[in-house]
Design brief:
The complex is a heterodimer of chains A (about 230) and B (about 750). Chain A is mainly alpha-helical. Chain A is built from nine helices and no strands. Chain B is elongated. The chains are: A mainly alpha (about 230), B mainly beta (about 750). Chains A and B meet through α1, α2, α4 and α6 of A and α1, β2, β3 and α4 of B.
């Protein structure tokens, strides 16, 4: 009887421990599962960015990033990419001004969230600047005066925050390239910035496979148009 | 036994990730049309899909909810332009069908805007007819803040007096506001037959609302119109500024703090037209000036994410001396000298207390002091005194000083949707001092007025198509010892194609001008009722609007046969506005036309007459063309107005006014041009060279006629010279102002 009691006590202690360990392992797995699930979902979506060219494509991708963002409310990358996908739709569908405005607004609310999660982030400044550029192209005569300088300032801030990041240089070059000479733009003015961007792309390594790494081809394409 | 437990435990873990549950459905709007691009997602999960062109979606749940601890899921659907939709439910079986109808979101972009009666110049506000820079870049406006508004419908081409003459109202019946507060004496002091400029630099304001009637209950004391100016916030960066023009020079510096949360700036300007007049001869003899010193000071502090404290101060002195032929005698001349000192200060604060409440508080003090000297001069320029009429009243010195101190508080409560409520009050303490001296008498008078107003206004949106703004204003003046209540209402309806129909109604009160208070035994508020109907079509580059109005004036001041508030009037008209800034690249133009039918019986009019400042037909065309290769913008403004009436009114033996002569001036034509060229003189500057010519064609312009005392002679009131030339160089260091300038002229 004593033995049985002793055994059952030992057994229950043992099973209790085992249970605890198992639960611990399971929950650790769950966390890691969550992490890898995030990683996998992001990797898949980020990879899709490279092949996406249509409004519909960016809309679908933007929706995917938004859903990830909704489930991962404290990570900035999903918000960042969701905003990027929205602003790209604005640029790809310039005929419908109301739609452009809608997309710019959506992008802005998403990037604001990203900015709250990751302050002083040069990548985020780039998107903020792109959003202003989209707003300017909705109605250059009306929006250009105020938003133009602000858009440029965001890129300058991005360069201050991350001097080695190629994207602010690329966007600065792109903005200048599409700005008429009379307003202080043109190919001449754009060239040095695009050169900088290309040099920095050579050395640039994204922090991880899901961190921003876009713009190489665009920089090369623009450089071709500007002429070496 | 151990194995048994292990199997049970592991089994439990293994069950996860089995059989998939599929959610599919159709997203449509309330008229059963598919909504593509909607985002369908599950809360706290990556699962989801985007609806296709046919509105259809389908996706598997990656986890079987039946096996997890909480077995309900929340599905969320968002689509641009629609209100978000969500529902929590328990998925049963292996699929769920979900057909959802989304409803249009009440989105600011889509909703109707209350516009009747007003023109907005702003870079931020939706539906603005002008940008802030249009105000400075309109040819012929001479950088005067009111100049550009004279090219809009509803205003008259009045060249002999300052201010905006709106829809049969005088220039003084358009009240000016800066950050909500009334501005006393916004124009340089009156000089006979010479329009005076607005005192305020247009670069100080980011938004302007010009209302030709039917404006909000937040503002009062403008019988016919309101010019509502909103000052700029923090600058983009520090900068220095230097301007040299054919009539003067100014220099300033604006400093933005390192953390970009505060700025301070100072500007000094000097204007003197004497050198210009020695090169370009004038019909009138300017003995002195016009000459002015002007100092602007301001600071702005961002007190929090959403709070802003701003101070603006303007101090100026100006003088002018004129010598004209005296109409009543052949040999004598007439002297007019004016010295003016002016101080304006405005301190205001705005803050969001939380998401629902916003406050705007302000205080302002201003003082305006005029010294006027009028005399008859003989051929040698010596003063002469004659004691018979009409010469006995032609030698005098006069002065007047107006002080205004005011405080204002507006509280705004944001309600659901775009609905909001605003209410508040203001208190104004005004003091008017008059000094009048002839060689035999001296008359002094002082008036104090404690003026209080309370107001409330609500914006109600019934869906996205219909909006109403309803308000009322209560005012009391201690000087008049009278109260009034002014109801205001606007309605706007948006058609499915975004065209808009608006209507506005309001009652407006205004105290008599100070000059009609002295000697007036029972002054009363003048009153006007406005009825406005407006139709507007707006696209990204084009605006078309047509507006019709009817106004009734009563209790206008009468000065003859005796002071009374028995004056009255009426105005009706129709106005058109068309602006296109996109059809032809780099070309922007607008066209406005006003038809006005008005009569009023006021001041010394013997009966109801079409007032001297009003004409039936007025039209303006403003064109701006940019040539990028030349870095140059060409602008032209053409204005036309039919002739205006003029009268000679004299008092008969019983002291009653009698109309003894009348006539109509020739039509008014004016073509103004402006050329601005961008350049950089040094490496670090952005410079603009501006050339402007008013009335290039030299068309004869007659604003009216002055009569001799007995009515036997009259002389035309004309501009002091056929044309006005302006040449200026504006340099800015540090901040790139050219972008502003260019974009504005695009």
């Amino acid at each position: 009887m004593k033995r049985t009691i002793l055994f059952s006590v030992v057994f229950s202690v043992f099973t209790g421990m085992l249970l605890t360990v198992l639960i611990l392992i399971a929950s650790l797995n769950a966390v890691r599962g969550q992490d890898t699930r995030y990683q996998q979902a992001m990797e898949k979506a980020v990879a899709a960015l490279d092949t996406t060219q249509s409004v519909m494509g960016f809309q679908e991708l933007g929706n995917t990033f938004s859903r990830i963002a909704n489930a991962e409310k404290d990570r900035w990358l999903p918000y960042y990419y969701a905003a990027y996908s929205q602003v790209m739709q604005a640029f790809l569908d310039q005929k419908n001004k109301d739609r452009m405005r809608e997309k710019a607004d959506e992008a802005e609310s998403l990037i604001t969230r990203a900015d709250e999660l990751s302050p002083d982030n040069a990548e985020i400044r780039c998107i903020q600047s792109l959003i202003l550029s989209a707003r300017i192209s909705i109605n250059p005569a009306v929006n250009g005066a105020v938003l133009g300088p602000r858009s440029g300032e965001l890129l300058e801030e991005a360069i201050r925050l991350a001097p080695e990041n190629p994207r602010p240089h690329l966007l600065l070059g792109q903005a200048l390239f599409y700005t008429p000479e009379m307003f202080g733009g043109g190919a001449e003015k754009a060239r040095p910035h695009l050169k900088d961007a290309l040099e920095k792309f050579e050395a640039f390594e994204p922090e991880s496979s899901i961190h921003p790494d876009w713009g190489r081809e665009l920089a090369q394409e623009l450089m071709k148009q500007v002429g070496e | 036994m151990r194995t048994f437990w292990l199997i049970i435990l592991l089994g439990g873990v293994l069950v996860q990730g089995q059989a998939q549950h599929i959610i599919s459905g159709m997203i449509t709007d309330h008229r059963n049309r598919p909504i593509p691009g909607a985002n369908i997602g599950i809360e706290n999960s990556y699962d989801g899909a985007t609806s296709g062109q046919d509105g259809f979606f389908s996706f598997p749940l990656s986890e079987n909810p039946a096996s997890t601890l909480k077995d309900s899921i929340t599905i969320q659907i968002t689509a641009a332009g629609y209100a978000p939709w969500s529902r929590t439910f328990h998925p049963r079986g292996d699929s769920t069908r979900l057909d959802v109808i989304l409803h249009k979101a009440v989105n600011e972009l889509e909703t109707v805007i209350i516009t009747a009666g007003s023109f907005v110049a702003s870079d931020e506000k939706r539906g603005a007819e002008l940008t802030a820079m249009d105000i400075v870049s309109t040819a012929g406006a001479d950088g005067d803040i009111t100049g550009a508004f004279k090219t809009l419908p509803g205003t008259q081409q009045v060249g002999e007096s300052g201010g905006l003459f709106v829809r049969g109202g005088t220039g003084k019946e358009t009240q000016q506001f800066i950050d909500g507060m009334i501005v006393n004496n916004p124009y340089f002091s009156d000089v006979p037959d010479l329009a005076q400029r607005n005192r305020f630099n247009p670069f100080l304001f980011k938004g302007t609302v010009f209302s030709s009637g039917g404006y909000s209950a937040l503002y009062g004391q403008g019988l016919s119109g309101a010019l509502i100016l909103e000052s700029v916030d923090l600058p983009e960066q520090s900068s220095a500024f230097l301007g040299i023009t054919s009539v003067g020079a100014d220099a300033g510096y604006e400093h933005l703090s390192e953390n970009k949360k505060a700025s301070i700036s100072g500007t000094y300007g000097y204007v003197n037209l004497q050198p210009y007049y020695s090169v370009v001869p004038q019909d009138r003899d300017f003995e002195a000036g016009p000459e002015a010193h002007n100092v602007d000071l301001n600071f702005r502090v961002k007190t929090s994410e959403t709070g802003m404290l701003k101070f603006y101060g303007n101090f100026s002195t100006s003088r002018i001396g004129l010598r004209d032929t005296d109409l009543d005698s052949v040999l004598l001349r007439h002297q007019f000298d004016l010295d003016n000192r002016y101080l304006y200060t405005n301190l205001n604060y705005r803050e969001y207390l939380n998401d629902d409440w916003k406050i705007l508080a302000g205080a302002s003090y201003s003082t305006n002091d005029n010294d006027i000297n009028r005399a008859l001069l003989n051929q040698q320029g010596q003063p002469v005194t004659l004691s018979r009429p009409p010469f006995d009243t032609k030698n005098f010195t006069a002065g007047n000083r107006s002080d205004l101190t005011q405080g204002r508080l507006v509280v705004e409560r944001f309600l659901s949707g775009q609905n909001s409520l605003r209410f508040g009050g203001e208190y104004l303490y005004g003091r008017e001092e008059n000094r009048f001296r002839t060689h035999e008498e001296s008359l002094d008078g002082t008036f104090d007025d404690h003026f209080k107003a309370l107001f409330a206004e609500v914006d109600v949106y019934l869906g996205t198509r219909l909006a109403a703004r309803l308000g009322a204003r209560f005012e009391h003046s201690s000087l008049l010892d009278k109260s009034n209540i002014a109801p205001r209402a606007s309605l706007a309806y948006q058609f499915p194609n975004k065209d808009q129909l608006s209507a506005a109604y309001g009652i407006y009160f205004q105290k008599p001008e100070p000059e009609y208070l002295f000697g007036n035994p029972a002054p009363q508020y003048a009153r006007a009722s406005h009825y406005i109907l407006n139709y507007q079509k707006v696209s990204d580059y084009r605006i078309f609007r047509v507006e019709a109005f009817y106004k009734e004036y009563d209790r206008l001041v009468k000065t003859a046969p005796a002071y009374s508030a028995q004056g009255s009037g009426e105005a009706r008209g129709i106005e058109l506005f068309w602006r296109d800034r996109g059809t032809i690249p780099n070309l922007d133009y607008w066209l406005s036309y006003s038809y006005l039918d008005t009569e009023r019986d006021y001041l010394n009019y013997p009966h109801s007459l079409q007032p001297e400042f009003a004409t039936p037909h007025t039209a303006s065309l403003v064109v701006k063309k940019t040539v990028p290769s030349l870095q140059t913008t060409f602008g032209a403004t053409y204005s036309f107005a039919t002739g205006r009436p003029y009268y000679h009114i004299h008092e008969n033996d019983e002291g009653h006014p009698v109309l003894s002569d009348r006539g109509k001036t020739i039509n008014y034509n004016s073509l103004g041009i402006g050329i601005s060229h961008l350049t950089s003189l040094f490496k670090s500057d952005f410079s603009v060279i501006v050339l402007g010519v008013n009335n290039v064609l030299g068309s004869r312009q007659v604003y009216g006629y002055n009569y001799s005392y007995d009515g036997s002679r009259k002389s035309a009131i004309t501009p002091p010279a056929e044309r006005f030339f302006f040449l200026g160089l504006f340099m800015s260091f540090g901040v790139d102002r050219t972008d502003d300038f260019i974009d504005s002229t695009l």
